[in-house]
Amino acid sequence: MHGSGVINNMKRYRQILLLGLIALFVYLVFYGFPDSPSPWFDEGINLGIAKSWVKHGVYSLEIAPGEFVKERSLLITTNYPLLLWTALSFKIFGIGLWQAKIVMFAFLFVFAFLFYTLAKKYYGENNALASLAILITFLPFYGNGKSALGEIPGLTYFLGGLLLWENEKKWKVFLSGLLFGLAAATKSIYLIFVVSVFAGEFFSGTKFPLGNLVPKLKRVMVLSAGMAIPLLIWIYTLLPDNFTFDYLVKTWQLYRNPYNIESAALTNFLRFFMESTPIHFAFLFLASAWFLIWKPKNGENIKKVEIALAVFILLNLVFYLKTAGWYRYFFPAHILLFVLAPPALECIAGKFKNILITGLVAAQLAVLAVNIKQSLYYNPGPRRFAEAVNRAVPRGQGIFVFDLPEIVFLLNRDDVWHYLHANPHIAFGEDLLKTNRYPAYIISNSLPPGDKYGIKIDGGKYVLYERTK
Question: What are the pLDDT digits (tens) for 229-253?
């Protein structure tokens, strides 16, 4: 009786903890709706593409009335596995910010469910609850996940594929391949999902990596057939009307090194010893690496899923070292480490695991409480500025927007010209001022238009100028 009572108490405790985590998660997802976080540059591009798709039937970004970016592969880094759902929401509910946010909320809820299910399947309920607690109290999960970006949607498809992956039924293998293909097609960086999955297929379940090659190849063919469908659609969405070899080279150079940075690796590597978020990542990374190295030495096989996770995390880390250093570039690997961290800490620290995880979650809660109201995570300013512009500027007057795709989306009007630097080396649209054309209104945060204009609305980061001469 005493033993069953303890078991029932533990079960009740886990249920209460799970309900508490769900309640916190729901609150944080809906906190500050729809301005948490406010739309920003990359999100503005994604929302603009979905808007153009719905309004004009053109899968690209409108840069002037009736004119669209032709070199889509140089612009579109988040693709149809997210933008399709965003466009569908626009089609049903109208074009606007909240209509985009509800799509991301749906992905967040599905992702959290799949995340918990995967952790529970492979590491048990206690570790799954620990993983969920780390996830739900991690502030960047909401900063990145509530924005119309591809990180969480791609990971959602990936987790769905992992949950079906080890099943031997051909239709489930095919469906897992389809989900992996959708994951890879969501963002250009997520093409490394393909490498991760094939590594798991060939290097798991046997001491000799290529043992049982024929059955593996048959399974891989079914898996590849599933992957091929969304990836072929992805390629089709990026092809220009006039495809050339030079265009292919230019696209490859962009994907290989988007910011044309050649000497950032050391600087980015040192961040993992000097800055809080990379240090957080490094702690979980080292614990998880030790766990995966220890398993075979202790006579345990590394699971197929673990190989895929490890390869993706490593490749994502390598990619990050070549970038401009923004934490968002290793965010996907960071999130996936939360699956491995609790069993890793259990392996390393034994009964002290719960103390370590409680301390980690408490620290994350403190960071969340201090920062959740900062402008990075909640800012109605861009939406209110766009509403003020729409009221102040009569339709048809013409507005030139300099490098602010989020404002172009929020304006939601047809008399807008847009000059856009997609990155420091690629620009789209036309800078009207350099061609001595002076529209009635200009919106900028960094380009004083000279003596021909005066300030009409000062929105701080965003300023509306009106032509006076």
Answer: 999 999 999 887 776 666 666 666 6
| Omega cis (within 30) before 439 | no
The residue among 114, 104, 109 whose CA lies nearest residue 83 is: 104
- Torsion region of 270: left, alpha or beta (phi above 0 gives left; psi -120 to 50 gives alpha): alpha
pTM of the model: 0.94
Q: How far apart are CA 49 and CA 391, in angstroms?
A: 24
Task: Read off the tokens for 110.
Answer: 């599905």
What is the rounded distance in angstroms from the CA atom of residue 184 to the CA atom of residue 175?
14
Q: Please, are residues 456 and 444 in contact by the beta-carbon 8 Å criterion?
A: no
What residue segments make up the domains of the chain, in order of their start?
Answer: 71-372, 380-467
Q: Give pLDDT tens digits for 297-333.
A: 777 889 999 999 999 999 999 999 988 889 999 999 9
Other C-beta atoms closer than 10 Å to the C-beta of 297 total: 7
Letter string b/e over residues 259-277, b meaning 16 or more CB atoms within 10 A of that residue's CB: eeeeebeeebeebbeeeeb
Q: Which two structure tokens, joined as six digits, stand for 7?
A: 């078991």
CA distance 445 to 458: 10
Contact 278, 170 (CB under 8 A): no
The two tokens of residue 46 are 């994604």
Give the relative orientation of helices 97-136 and 2-30 as an angle to the nearest 10 degrees: 150
Q: Give the Cα separation of 53 and 38 in Å (integer).
A: 22
Pairing of strands 462-467, 453-459: antiparallel
pLDDT computed for residue 297 by the predictor: 76
d(CA 115, CA 158): 10
The pair of structure tokens assigned to 221 is 């063919």
Q: Which two tokens stand for residue 104?
A: 């991301």
